[in-house]
Amino acid sequence: MTFLEDILGRLEKAKSPVLQEIRDGEFLAVTGPELLAKIGRARAALRKLRLKKGERCALLAQNSIHWVAMDLAIMAEGLIVVPLYARQAPVELVGMMKDCWPGAIVCGDIALSEAIEKLWPDGPPHIRLDDVFTREGNGQGPVHAVETAPVTIIYTSGTSGVPKGVVLTAANIKHMLSCTSARLDSLMRGAGRQERVYHYLPFCFAGSWIMLLTSLRRGSLLSLNMDLTKIANEMRMVSPDYFLNVPALLERMRKAVDEQLWKTGGFPLTIYSRAKGAWVRRIEKQSEFVDMFWLALARAAVFPAIRKKMIGPKLRALICGSAPLAIDTQLYFMMLGVPVLQVYGLTETTAICTMDDPQAVVPGRVGPTIPGVEMRLGDNEEILVRGPNIFSGYWERPQETEKVLRDGWFYSGDQGEVDPYGNWRVVGRIKNLIILGSGHNVAPEPIEDEILRELPTANQAVLVGNGRGYLSAIITGKVNREQVQAAVDSINSRLPHYKQVRQFVVREETFTVESGLLTANGKLRRDRIATTLQAEIEGMYSKTPISSGQESGVSA
Description:
The chain is α/β, with parallel strands linked by helices. It contains 19 helices and 26 strands. The chain is 38% helix and 22% strand. The protein is globular and about 65 Å long.
């Protein structure tokens, strides 16, 4: 049985709601059979296009019940779904679609559809997503999915160069869903009820899509955010058992609690502040006798109220992936009594290689490998992966495929390390390594993370210096030169000379997806940043390198 047959069979028996959209504080829900009826309508609409088995079908829309129905319908018809990010620039979307040349484009937005047609007038036919479900039609029938056949092409972010289409098979997905379900079984042990899951991340990303399919397979109630500005209120409304996150949201949640308590003041702030200090000393194994009192008081009087207001009383864990999470943030939520389970993987590994064991979380690590998957370190501590989760190749890019698939191993491009108990940590991307003129190799990510920890109001930090004599930094957000200088001085005091930041530039404007300086899932496009800010970078290197403690910042 394929994963798709399994999910559709479970939906037929699921008489309670399995999906619900949150719109203006109200829930719009569908049961399993109701979702199956929508899938049937979508299959009927697809059959009218007379597409051949194995043809591609682009799905370009925001998360919704209709998105889910169309996604499952495309695969059930034996077509390959190509999910795309609706917030990307139309020219980038057209570039990806021309790469895989779909037989049809299912679009959720009229304006975006018109923009694509203008750029690609001789492209494939467009289908309006919501229109599909206003028509009569029943396309129920056998599922045309084969274990070894491709079911999706998910385009990589393209942090440098052109995005590539990652081809995943039904077998890849089936193995991954068994692994994610096993971890969630451990997390939800003893619950004995339908799980509640909140979801705000776009389904076009591999990890988000796997969470969707896992929820459908488990019969969970998946609540879909339809407005990113309402996440905070909706988390309390849904009161989820767990949900998938990116580090940026957890950082914002942490800052919001601090700001709110500073505004409130009084004895709750005193308890909170003392307990935070006690927690840090406990982590550093420097506890004082009075620390037990402040932590006990906070756990009785302050932390439960924070948890209830922030994420509801039923939360068992936050799940976090897509980028490294600062250990301070993970420890902060642990202090509140909320475990943060980290996940590591790439689109090419069907989103996941490692997952934290809910019963044995190691802060700062991303857990052990999932069942059936092997990982080891290659040259430059590169993470190599082998197993049934590895993709079959990049769409019609055999040379690119050969670069990363060698002797059965996938070369991830990530630097890592593993502890004696098999728990992994991701250090950074090998291709992001900065090679200074001195020959020293510097992974920028750990230093960038340090800068952001020292500067809570900053949004991004980007190190530059390839081929130069020293490192410089670009800082975005509402910070001034004095604040940045103090942060740089503090960080430099803990680093060897070649890792110290000697110049920096401050710009209030942040990097965004729309500006082309972030990928669709929020990662830095370092090459484009270097090109766009070339004048500012050259300005930093036109000066004599300045030792730590001296004024070195410039504003943009």
